[in-house]
């Protein structure tokens, strides 16, 4: 990573900065020149005798003559409000967007099952207090999943004490880390337009339905197609199943769900483009169509989940403004 500059200059373009500068012709409280501070993202730094820097603040763009600058420096980016939302709230709402057919509480934990379709819908959301000692909680998890003929899995967040407590009982990793990433819907659309202008055209080829069928599913999955798959994918109250077809075959698709809580939130999942057609803007078109659908439904924020090892996808989503709220992983019982 290239280190951030320590003083103001052209290298700060694109960074958040604070700049103190003189206000020509104005007198300060002490009788000397009056000064003020500007905080925002530097958009330009020109050269020459009339050099200026342009800084975008929350109130608009401010132009500061370079000759009037007294001091300044880069500062850390403004923390995202979305990154401050409680972990349990984020995961609970995400569970509503990927609903298990069968669920049961265990204290603050949530046991979920859907006949084995997806780890997310067939694992215990192990966040908060299970209401009983850890060994007892995990024994109940094992019994609950055994009754359904499923392996016992728990979803844990490595930074939470519960994760260490589960591991101390001998439970072992069953997956790599998964990133839970968040962004604003408007920001994602803006970044997508800047980076994939062809998305506007391919989005016109997208069809959206509120139900899912086998052709949508088998595009990148092996059968069997089942009612359990349909129940999870089409379960939320407001869901969009988007597709692009070529000669009657689905070649790109994605899913979105709207969740109403403290805000209206978009959950994105199962984004896919057929490998031999990647790089043609099909995936970008599907994503744009889903973001626009969500915006029309009042969504202001969005989230998605991506495996940390999928560096190509992670880089794409970061370019679209998605930031990692937290990561999680699955642990399995040593007796599974």
Structural features, described:
By secondary structure, this protein is an alpha+beta fold. The protein folds into 3 domains: 10-74, SH3 type barrels (Roll), CATH 2.30.30; 102-171, no CATH class; 179-331, Gcn5-related N-acetyltransferase (GNAT) (Aminopeptidase). 25% of the residues lie in helices and 35% in strands. The chain has 9 helices and 17 strands. It has helices at 87-97, 134-146, 161-168, 185-195, 199-203, 214-217, 227-233, 282-296, 311-319, and strands at 16-27, 33-45, 52-57, 60-65, 69-74, 102-106, 109-113, 124-125, 153-156, 172-173, 178-184, 207-209, 238-246, 249-260, 264-273, 301-307, 323-332. The strands form 3 sheets. Strands 8, 9, 10, 11, 12, 13, 14, 15, 16 and 17 form a 10-stranded mixed β-sheet that branches. A 5-stranded antiparallel β-sheet has the order 4-3-2-1-5, with no helix packed on it. Helix 2 links the parallel strand 8 and strand 9 (153-156). Helix 4 runs antiparallel to helix 8. It is globular and about 80 Å long. The two termini are 42 Å apart. This is Ribosomal protein S18 acetylase RimI-like enzyme. It comes from Nocardioides marmoribigeumensis. Residues 187-336 form the N-acetyltransferase domain. InterPro entries: Acyl_CoA_acyltransferase (IPR016181), GNAT_dom (IPR000182), Rv0428c-like_C (IPR056935), SH3_Rv0428c (IPR056934).
